[in-house]
């Protein structure tokens, strides 16, 4: 379950932005069994949370756009104390490929000290394996599930249903392995629609996120097979079927996008050594987007 300290409340500007959609503050609840109400207007804060810009000098720094709409949301980079309050007692599951594993690393890097992070890296980055940790000081259970194909994610959803146990926060993402080994956008689209059905039927978590694929820099990919199969044309074909699948909430689905494509594109070639995996700042930005989205979502729940 998600908990909030007074310091974590979205500012009055955001509350004013949201309240026309709800009859009174007394209608808000914090139970994870509540339904999340998304505001699909293009200028709503939940749809602006991915609006990140980069300052590459002297270091790779990022922040939210300075447009008045984004500034009115008062997004903030949360520190360890605030994250501990936000995720206190929560079960967080991140499932997918190496991109998802890097998100786990960034989240843990925000709540663990450097010595603890060094001690877990061997287990966290064990090739093609799951990983789990309990951060006792904040009562958070975090599981990474190695699930490089969308079909793996569908099986995970059914497992939650069968066990009648659902995480408080679920982050999923897959596509690069399918693109490399099957190179068939239509097949990927079928798998995504099946996953959407599994999510709707199986998952009771109110906080669902989809981790988008990164920008691929073809000339930097480290094998000939990748350079041949992971083309710009194929990437865009896969992206189109993702949008058409109605898995993302912007297109009528249950999952909020963590836009790694935009983050990696704007960070650029200087932020990657292999054209696929990016510097930690990209994934840290994705984690902060997730945390700010949790703040917004948790203040948009109505009693069911």
UniProtKB/TrEMBL annotation:
GO biological process: xylan biosynthetic process
Gene Ontology MF terms in the entry: acetyltransferase activity
Organism: Linum tenue
Lineage, top ranks: Eukaryota, Viridiplantae, Streptophyta, Embryophyta, Tracheophyta
Record's keyword terms, sorted: Membrane, Signal, Transmembrane, Transmembrane helix
Gene Ontology cellular-component terms listed: Golgi apparatus; membrane
Protein name: Pmr5/Cas1p GDSL/SGNH-like acyl-esterase family protein
Chief location category: membrane
Endpoints of the signal sequence: 1-18
């Amino acid at each position: 379950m998600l908990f909030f300290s007074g310091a974590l409340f979205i500012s009055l500007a955001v509350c004013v932005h949201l309240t026309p959609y709800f009859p009174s503050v007394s209608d808000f609840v914090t139970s994870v069994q509540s339904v999340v109400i998304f505001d699909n207007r293009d200028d709503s804060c939940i749809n602006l949370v991915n609006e990140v810009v980069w300052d590459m000098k002297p270091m790779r720094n990022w922040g939210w756009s300075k447009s008045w709409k984004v500034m009115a949301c008062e997004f903030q980079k949360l520190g360890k104390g605030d994250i501990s309050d936000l995720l206190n007692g929560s079960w967080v599951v991140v499932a997918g490929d190496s991109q998802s594993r890097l998100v786990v690393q960034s989240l843990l890097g925000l709540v663990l000290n450097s010595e603890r992070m060094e001690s877990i890296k061997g287990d966290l980055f064990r090739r093609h394996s799951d990983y789990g940790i309990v951060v006792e000081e904040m009562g958070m259970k975090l599981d990474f599930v190695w699930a490089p194909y969308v079909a793996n994610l569908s099986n995970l959803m059914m497992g939650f249903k069968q066990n009648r146990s659902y995480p408080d926060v679920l982050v999923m993402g897959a596509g690069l392995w399918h693109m490399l080994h099957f190179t068939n956008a239509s097949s990927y689209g079928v798998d995504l629609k099946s996953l959407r059905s599994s999510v709707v039927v199986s998952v009771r978590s109110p906080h669902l996120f989809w981790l988008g694929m990164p920008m691929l820099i073809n000339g930097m990919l480290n094998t000939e097979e990748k350079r041949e199969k992971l083309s710009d044309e194929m990437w865009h074909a896969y992206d189109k079927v993702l949008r058409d699948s109605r898995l993302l909430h912007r297109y009528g689905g249950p999952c909020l996008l963590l836009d790694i494509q935009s983050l990696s594109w704007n960070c650029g070639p200087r932020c990657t050594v292999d054209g696929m995996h990016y510097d930690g700042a990209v994934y840290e930005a994705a984690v902060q987007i997730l945390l700010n989205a949790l703040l917004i979502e948790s203040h948009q729940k109505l009693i069911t």
